[in-house]
């Protein structure tokens, strides 16, 4: 088993609630949720440790982090035994979102035009303390935020492919989470496997994880990414990009 563990940047505050964790990163306006580019960018860097330039507040192609939407879904509907999220494209800042009031088995987060942003499938409500829900949010987004370069770069190198470093297109496609037991505020995530399937210019990456407390395994899940515009691997170009990411992390 891979020994990389994830609890999140805010894990020292073990009694933090989801509301306290996420309040700085969204606003409520007339029954809708609005995430500004600045709020989304701060969440990516401060909570998820994600320094992808697409999450810079002033980026022309700014995209709200999917991990923030994941956190808001858990904040509203709580934990369940089976959770599947499918993301329906890039979400721009300041887009009003509507979350259904009831935690149905199937629901969708929609924008002001009624278009789905995230499709949600839930099964088996799992009562948990606010601190436990916050721990799962922190642990998952800390894991997910390291997708590149920590997890994805070695997969690309092993397959001998890479994306266009000038206009990288890596899309957060979906995620799933299964919980067999109710976690506590001490829950952590551990990377268990990762692989990349390549078909022509497209790559499908899956990063799998387990949720633990001490030596006890509580559940598992996976994050799925689509990497487009693949080309032969250029070690020099990729190393420059990885170095740029690492500089951004140090400059936080």
Report on this structure:
The chain is globular. It starts with a strand and ends with a helix. Helices cover 28% and strands 33% of the residues. The strands form 3 sheets. It has a 9-stranded antiparallel beta sheet. Strands 2-3 form a two-stranded antiparallel sheet. It is built from 6 helices and 13 strands. It is α+β, with helices and mostly antiparallel strands and 252 residues long.
Structural topology:
Blueprint: E1 5-6, H1 18-22, E2 27-29, E3 32-34, H2 37-46, H3 66-77, E4 80-87, E5 97-98, E6 106-111, E7 116-125, H4 130-144, H5 147-159, E8 161-162, E9 170-179, E10 188-199, E11 202-213, E12 216-227, E13 231-232, H6 235-250
Helix pairs in contact: 3-4, 5-6
Question: Nutshell version of this structure?
Answer:
With 252 residues, the protein is α+β, with helices and mostly antiparallel strands.
Order of helices and strands: EHEEHHEEEEHHEEEEEEH
Number of helices: 6
Overall 3D form: globular
Report how far the terminal alpha carbons are from each other. 31 Å
Question: What are the key terms here?
Answer:
252 residues, alpha+beta, 9-stranded antiparallel beta sheet, two-stranded antiparallel ribbon, 6 helices
């Amino acid at each position: 088993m891979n020994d990389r563990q994830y609890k999140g940047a805010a894990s020292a505050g073990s009694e933090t609630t989801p509301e306290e964790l996420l309040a700085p990163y969204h606003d409520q306006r007339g029954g809708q949720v609005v995430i500004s580019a600045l709020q989304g960018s701060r969440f990516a860097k401060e909570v998820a440790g994600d320094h992808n330039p697409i999450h810079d507040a002033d980026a022309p192609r700014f995209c709200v982090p999917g991990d923030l939407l994941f956190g808001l879904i858990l904040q509203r509907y709580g934990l369940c035994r089976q959770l599947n999220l499918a993301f329906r494209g890039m979400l721009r800042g300041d887009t009003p979102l509507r979350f259904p009031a009831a935690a149905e088995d199937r629901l969708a987060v929609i924008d002001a035009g009624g278009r789905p942003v995230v499709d949600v499938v839930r099964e088996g409500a799992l009562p948990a303390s606010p601190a436990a829900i916050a721990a799962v949010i922190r642990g998952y987004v800390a894991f997910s935020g390291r997708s590149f370069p920590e997890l994805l770069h070695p997969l690309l190198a092993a397959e001998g492919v890479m994306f266009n470093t000038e206009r990288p297109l890596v899309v957060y496609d979906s995620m799933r989470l299964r919980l067999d037991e109710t976690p506590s505020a001490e829950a952590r995530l551990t990377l268990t496997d990762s692989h990349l399937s390549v078909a022509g210019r497209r790559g499908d990456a899956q990063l799998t994880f387990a949720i633990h407390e001490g030596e006890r395994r509580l559940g598992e899940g996976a994050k799925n990414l689509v990497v487009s515009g693949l080309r032969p691997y250029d070690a020099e170009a990729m190393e420059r990009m990885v170095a740029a990411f690492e500089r951004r992390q140090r400059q936080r």
